[in-house]
């Protein structure tokens, strides 16, 4: 079973501590609704878009296209297409419309040039599920999700925001990647005022997992390391064990460094896309290279292979 390497976590925390991380801009008009948009529409936009935020590049196909004079890739392309749809057809994100979404709707929306989502059937199913449950469980009003939580992520008695989201199939990941990503986005927009900040966690995806493994924040048993080297597919349970260990490592790191876990995620996600990348990590530009066991050994493991999921 993976374990936390507390000594290495403390080493990394000392580097992170003085970085002065700038939170991401959730008002960028290329990707997100403007600040004067109705709250219910903004909520639905983020609930839908985060639900779609998984496994865009898969089976060797990269989700990337040149659009508007620049190259968009992965989540950037997803949210750009989401914002274009929101600007032209904001009713697309309304619960009643989501209940009618089919595969062709998803393909038409999220495909452009040679880029297309790898699982349109699953995405259509997740969107219909959101629409139906917003109507049935929350009386058609997405603001009730926040109202019912009273601003708590977790509650000793009753349900916090993270727990409430589990009613939606898109948000049932045991490691809660999408749930904490949505909480981060909504808190940055001022829509979710978090009453229990100690319950914040980083939303663990493939980038954060890869960084944790390479930096040695978690110790993997040889059986797992060998599976990664052989590029073998991990099981559902193994995926949960590894990602939960990664999440706890970052919780400990953020506590030591006294950094908001959401701000830490902003840095790590960008770092994983630009520096600590899969195939050719940019170690000469890495601020962790002096304490990185992978850099010292010149052995760079990737994240474990687990592709067929809508969790992350």
Automatic annotation (TrEMBL):
Q: Which GO terms describe its molecular function?
A: catalytic activity
Q: Which GO terms describe its biological process?
A: DNA repair
Checking InterPro entries in the record gives: DNA_glycosylase, HhH_base_excis_C
Protein's UniProt name: Iron-sulfur cluster loop
Q: Which Gene3D superfamilies match?
A: Helix-hairpin-Helix base-excision DNA repair enzymes (C-terminal) (1.10.1670.10)
> Could you tell me which species this protein originates from?
Ignisphaera aggregans (strain DSM 17230 / JCM 13409 / AQ1.S1)
């Amino acid at each position: 079973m993976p374990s936390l390497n507390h000594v290495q976590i403390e080493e990394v925390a000392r580097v992170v501590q003085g970085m002065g991380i700038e939170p991401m801009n959730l008002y960028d008009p290329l990707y997100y609704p403007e600040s004067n948009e109705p709250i219910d529409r903004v909520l639905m936009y983020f609930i839908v878009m985060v639900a779609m935020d998984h496994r865009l590049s898969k089976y060797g196909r990269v989700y990337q296209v040149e659009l508007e004079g620049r190259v968009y890739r992965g989540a950037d392309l997803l949210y750009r297409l989401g914002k274009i749809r929101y600007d032209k057809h904001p009713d697309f994100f309304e619960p009643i419309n989501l209940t009618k979404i089919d595969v062709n709707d998803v393909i038409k929306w999220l495909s452009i040039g040679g880029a297309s989502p790898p699982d349109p059937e699953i995405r259509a199913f997740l969107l219909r599920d959101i629409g139906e449950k917003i109507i049935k469980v929350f009386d058609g009003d997405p603001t009730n999700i926040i109202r019912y939580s009273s601003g708590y992520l977790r509650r000793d008695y009753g349900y916090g925001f993270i727990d409430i989201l589990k009613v939606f199939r898109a948000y049932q990941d045991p490691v809660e990647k999408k749930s904490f990503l949505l909480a981060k986005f909504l808190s940055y927009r001022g829509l979710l005022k978090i009453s229990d900040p100690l319950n914040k966690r980083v939303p663990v995806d493939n980038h954060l997992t890869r960084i944790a493994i390479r930096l040695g924040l978690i110790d993997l048993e040889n059986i797992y390391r060998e599976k990664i080297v052989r590029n073998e597919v991990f099981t559902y349970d193994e995926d949960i064990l590894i990602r939960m260990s990664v999440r706890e490592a970052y919780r400990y790191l953020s506590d030591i460094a006294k950094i908001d876990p959401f701000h830490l995620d902003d840095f790590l996600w960008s770092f994983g896309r630009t520096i600590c990348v899969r195939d050719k990590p940019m170690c000469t530009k890495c601020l962790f290279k002096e304490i990185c066991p992978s850099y010292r050994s010149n052995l760079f493991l990737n994240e474990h292979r687990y592709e067929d999921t809508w969790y992350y």
